[in-house]
Amino acid sequence: MKVGGITLMAVLLLALPALAGNVDPCAPDPSDTDGDGICAAIDNCSGTANASQLDGDQDGYGDVCDCDFSSTANGACDGGDFGAFVAVFGTGVPPTNCEFDLAPNGAVDGGDFGAFVAQFGGQPGPACGNAPGTPCPNGGGTPVPGVPCP
Asked: pTM score, two decimals?
């Protein structure tokens, strides 16, 4: 009986910090490099904080780091994406255009344009599977689609 009581006490002592909400959810592997509470192994944008994991085009890259929009999906943020972005600039989201809300605030606006310019010429991500040491939960190298448009 005494061993069981000690084991229960140890479990409770280890659980108390988690109950208080001050434990890194990635522990013991503190791989949350962007500080959004999502471990890099499952984060759809491990270089930029995006706790919501929104993924409007369901390509596995979080909207905040994916300016390769579904209509032009070619693995790069380029002129085709700029044209698609300009076409929806000034609109609200949801239920459509979620993937263009790069600075998620419910509208395609100047904040999103700034994020687009910062990503222009690059590739989506990084996300699990394409960042070193971050395999995806499905065991492959393909990011798992995140949260769809609300």
From this structure: 0.69
